[in-house]
């Protein structure tokens, strides 16, 4: 059974035993209370710059760092440190995935190629939480208005049957506006569609030859 994005991210951190019982304020993002290693991992995952974190199970503390520290090290027992892959500059992280909000206007096929050339794919949204996060990110840019974004699903093979382009899997989550998709034969692609009346985004179908902004996604 495939693991969800939320499940996978906590399994990708690598223990760095050479930092056992060590501590440093170099590259430090913050120190927080944390009841468990999993919660500490989630703290690091939730910060785009975090690539390294330490957890102290006795003190129930979590320290998040930009990267592995190489100086200013001193001894303090019970700290264990874990490294993680990070997103490239310009990309934003959510759970175990990186997202690039492209500002170029391309048609769907061109957008798909652009993402492929970046080692990624057109974004595939599989939960409300991911959807909400993407909307939040878009809305922070110029008020979020008139910036419809291509998603990676199409109904090229069969009208009204939406599949992700990476593996041809049926979409398992959707968030269409009322009346969408309207199933016009020419509208075989999906966008995150801004509506000024409601001041937010939901999904809508569109003609694939229309030029839109788009979001690339890749796995860590």
Write up what this structure looks like.
- The chain is α+β, with helices and mostly antiparallel strands.
- It has two domains: 5-83, Hepatocyte Growth Factor, CATH 3.50.4; 92-219, Roll (Mannose-Binding Protein A, Chain A), CATH 3.10.100.
- It has four helices and 15 strands.
- Strands 8, 9, 10, 11, 12, 13, 14 and 15 form an eight-stranded mixed sheet that branches. A five-stranded antiparallel sheet has the order 1-7-4-5-3, with helices on one face.
- β13 (189-195) and β14 (200-206) form a beta hairpin.
- The radius of gyration is 20 Å and the shape is elongated.
- Residues 1-11 have low confidence and may be disordered.
Classify the secondary structure makeup into a structural class.
Answer: alpha+beta
The N- and C-terminal alpha carbons lie at a distance of: 19 Å
Level-2 CATH architecture of the largest domain: Roll
- Percentage of residues in DSSP E strands: 25-35%
Question: What would you report as the Rg, rounded to the nearest angstrom?
Answer: 20 Å
Here the CATH topology of the largest domain equals Mannose-Binding Protein A, Chain A
CATH-assigned homologous superfamily of the largest domain: Mannose-Binding Protein A, subunit A
Number of domains in the coordinates? 2
Q: What is the number of helices? A: 4
């Amino acid at each position: 059974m495939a693991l969800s994005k939320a499940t996978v991210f906590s399994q990708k951190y690598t223990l760095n035993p050479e930092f056992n019982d060590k501590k440093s304020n170099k590259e430090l993002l913050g120190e927080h209370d944390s009841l468990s290693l999993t919660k500490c991992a989630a703290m690091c995952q939730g910060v785009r710059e975090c690539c390294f974190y330490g957890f102290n199970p006795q003190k129930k503390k979590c320290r998040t760092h930009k990267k592995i520290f190489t100086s200013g090290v001193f001894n303090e027992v019970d700290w264990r440190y874990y490294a993680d892959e990070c997103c490239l500059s310009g990309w934003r992280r959510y759970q175990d995935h990186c997202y690039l909000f492209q500002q170029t206007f391309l048609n769907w096929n061109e957008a798909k190629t652009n993402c492929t050339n970046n080692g990624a794919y057109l974004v595939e949204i599989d939960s409300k939480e991911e959807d909400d996060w993407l909307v939040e990110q878009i809305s922070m840019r110029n008020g979020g208005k008139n910036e419809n974004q291509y998603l990676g699903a199409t109904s090229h093979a069969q009208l009204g049957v939406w599949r992700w382009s990476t593996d041809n899997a049926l979409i398992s989550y959707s968030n269409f506006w009322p009346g969408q998709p309207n199933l016009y034969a020419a509208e075989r692609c999906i966008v995150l569609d801004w509506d000024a009346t409601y001041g937010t985004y939901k999904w809508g179908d569109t003609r694939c030859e229309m030029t839109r902004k788009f979001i690339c996604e890749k796995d860590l």
